[in-house]
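Think of the structure tokens as a kind of shorthand, similar to the way a musician reads notation: each symbol stands for something richer, in this case the local conformation of the backbone. In the example below we present two proteins back to back. Begin with the first one, reading the sequence and then the tokens, and try to describe in your own words what changes along the chain.
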Amino acid sequence: MGILNVTPDSFSDGGRYFSYEAAVEHGLQLLSDGADILDIGGASTRPPGSDYGSGASDVTQEDEAERILPVIKAILHRVPDAIISIDTTRSMIARRAMEAGAELVNDVSAGTADPGMFETVAKQKRPIVLMHGYGPHFQKATIDEYQYQDVVREVYEFLELRIREARSAGIETVIADVGIGFAKGFRDNLRLMKEHREFEELGVSLLFGASRKSSIGKALDHPTKPEERIAASVSAAIHAVRNGARIVRVHDVRETHDAFAMLEAIESAE
């Protein structure tokens, strides 16, 4: 899953693909580089904390729609069989994006930010990604304040509940995301990565997204900017797939694609 942020303030590439032309060009490049899914978002979810200050700025529904709908339509006009995911917590944006051709909703609030989300996705008969760590249940001042007795168990129980709620609303295909970097400290993120296979017990496909995040940088022995975390991000993606992930959400599609291609070549050698 290639990340396309049509925003001015995303933590990794804020502003780089904010214009319509740049966003469409980058989206097409990600598909050419090997992305199976293109995840398009028009509202940053950059969390508050010591790494990113006050977090993302608010954006109106109208602005969010104006950012992403023309990009979705343009990309599908150029690549009609592209699989588009809409990264949003708003049911109106999800509905309009699906009407424009999006096939998947990626809701980082797990349906808690907008009570109409599950009904909207169910009516469209589309899959939904549910993530832990963002939305009304996680509105403390900064991510640095979160404390868990057992982060794996608590994240698991949250996702289990939200999956059950989504299915009760009529959504058939649900995907879960442990939410690396959201409402969790560095050690919590590492433990979720290490024990990622535990989440297979949820009985749904798992999405993993750690690309370029601050936890990747903190694991290294030198200071880094987000764009300097590519190799470490690829390593995390490989570990995730070997521990249950079916989808990896990444900024650097070509590098990740090539790493998996090399692994496949090695493992299939006679």
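Once you have a description of the first chain, move to the second and do the same.
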Amino acid sequence: MPELPEVETIRGDILGAGVVGRGIKEAQLLWAGAVREPEPREFCRRLAGRTIRAVARRGKYLIFHLDSGESLIVHLKMTGALLLRGPAFGPEPYLRALFLLDDGRELRFADARKLGRLWLVDDAQKVVGKLGPDALAADFTPQVLAVRLGSRRAPLKPLLMDQEFVSGLGNIYADEALFLAGIHPLRPAHQVSPTEVATLHQAIGQVLHQAMANRGTSFSDYRDLSGEPGNNVGELRVYRRRGQPCFRCQTPIERMALRGRGTYFCPRCQG
């Protein structure tokens, strides 16, 4: 579930917790399947003794830049969590990997459904290079969005969730942005007017910044670096509000399945 606001919240927590500059004494894998590259034993061997120099984010990916020049990349997927724990903290449910830091703390990767993945690569672009522009990057402008929509005939909702189209948006914030912009999720991309493109671009930024200010949206799985839930659920206007009155027009919010994902919208405001 973690989308851009949740991953950015975790990145900020990592910076605030003094993890940058710390050494990794040891990496342990409790489920080898979490590692996509390299081979699991090599993954652990190459991380031991490395120092974390910086932490970045691209879309939904966290990127730890190491003193070796390599990058440790984490994708939390649906149920992953990255947690910083002290040495006295008890066992972690669904723990898949841990990184023992040189100050005694542990950076723990937990994942109930085993969907999250880890990489250790010499060039982060090998993993994130295929992504579209980051939804909050300065170079993701209304003009860029208009060009990318172009003559595409796909419905807007799944297009916004396509990480190669624009990175960082998922089910929650795609629904919220489309509601805020007053555009139906099934609208073909090529039918969005220039004015609507500008409105949609603004809406994307607004819902993402709002969610970051509230430290993310938690229903069941997402937790921040200290294990606390986000506070953004109360700000959602359509997502998971089927049957409840629209905040604008009081029409009941509807839900439909769109390419296998639940999609929430107001049939009047987004008609």
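Compare your description with these statements about the second chain. The chain has a mean pLDDT of 97.
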